[in-house]
Amino acid sequence: PLVIVGRVLLLPFRAALEKVVAFTDGFLTSISESLSVEDWRNRMDQEILWLHGGGDTNEVDEVLASIHEFGTTMVDDVMVPRGDVVGISVDATVEEARVLAKEEGFSRYPVYRDSMDNVVGVLHVLDLLHANPKDTIKGLARDPLITNATKSVERLLSEFQGSYNQLAVVADEFGGIAGIATVEDLLEELVGEIHDETDNKENPVRRVEAGVYIVEATARVDELNESLGLNLPEGEYDTLGGLVLERLERIPRIGERLQEDEVGIEVAAAEPNRIHTIRLTVRKETAKRHDG
């Protein structure tokens, strides 16, 4: 009886989920196989099994909730906001694009002309592999898919399928961009976190030498304090980059420095609109306690 009830409850959502699964079958054949994608696909298979009455009641409840939310979620809820978007100029060389891709670890980047409000294409890192390092990326950029923040993620997923794009530029009401949304962002709403084929799995903190660390600007201050034995101040910001921005009240240039108690902070990599990595130099006494 419980299985029959589960089937009845899930019936209204069956078409929506099977539509997503049909899309992902085509999506998966267009990218290289990897363990993370295979694990994700297994999860999709399990959800289809649940549609036909398999799985325990807790799992069925989770699927039911995620499918229902998927149908009512807007692009604004899942997109990467403009401030966190890493783009690349259409005039950049292939070699410059390779360096950026290595630093950032994403597989696709919006390509802009003059500013991020004028996105003219999307660059896939696989297209850089056999390109001439001295050429610009202009000829490699693919036409962007433009969408808006109030569109449903279900509708955007259909547009992804029809256009064979996997990254959409989310336009704002002023003609600029509000952010980006990817196939991965949308599917994670339904099946949980999956991994991009170039996801960076490295620790956000890299020890260079005793007392010296290169840290991602997105690293959380509280976690840095705990892991490195520091006493960096915590405020309305969450991240190390947020701390720097609050102190300087602007986006700093590479090489700019400030001091917080026993920690020297230097901007190691940045763009005009974003800090990427920060070099921390910890006072010898603190470093000895942490490094042992």
From TrEMBL:
Residues 79-139, 140-197 form the CBS domain. Gene3D superfamilies: 3.30.465.10, CBS-domain. The keyword S-adenosyl-L-methionine does not apply. Signal peptide: none annotated. Keywords: CBS domain, Repeat. Pfam families: CBS, CorC_HlyC. One of its GO terms (molecular function) is flavin adenine dinucleotide binding. This is HlyC/CorC family transporter. It comes from Eiseniibacteriota bacterium.
